[in-house]
Amino acid sequence: MPLYSYKCPSCDHRFDARHSMSAAPPVCPACGHESVQRVITTAPAIAGGISTPAGDGHRASKEQLKSKWAEETPKLRQKLESKLGAETVRRNAPSLYSNDD
Ligand SMILES: [Zn+2]
């Protein structure tokens, strides 16, 4: 079953719930609010870097980001290096080099 992320508009509580796609959204476990908001987690634009909100605990989306990152980083790095030179890129975007295998 897919894991969904929700945010309660009433008390701001964030939580994950696992249920089938056709099931009704859960109520907020903190305050019992019935119309919690589905949080759509999407990969941020690669140029903006990877940022994971602190204390979020979205393990699934983190894995997605990781594979996306591993796929996109070499391409982006090459593009930047041909434009700016390897030294400049290394100095300004050291994170592009941290996931090398
Ligand atoms: Zn709540």
How do the helices and strands line up, and which of them pair or pack?
Layout lengths: L2 E5 L6 E5 L18 E3 L19 H26 L1 H7 L9
Antiparallel strand pairs: 1-2, 1-3
The structure holds zinc ion.
Zinc ion binds next to loops.
**Which band does the percent of strand residues land in?**
5-15%
Count of separate structural domains = 2
What is the multimeric organization of the chains shown?
Answer: single chain
Radius of gyration: 18 Å
Bound molecules: zinc ion
**Per the principal axes of the C-alpha atoms, what is the gross shape?**
elongated
What class do helices, strands and sheet pairing give?
alpha+beta
> Any low-confidence stretches, pLDDT <50, length ≥5?
none
Compute the number of strand runs.
3
Helix percent reads: 25-40%
Distance between the termini: 32 Å
Order of helices and strands: EEEHH
Global mean pLDDT: 81
Arrangement of strands in the largest sheet: 2-1-3
Could you describe the largest sheet, including whether it forms a barrel? 3 strands, antiparallel
Enumerate how many helices there are, as a single number: 2
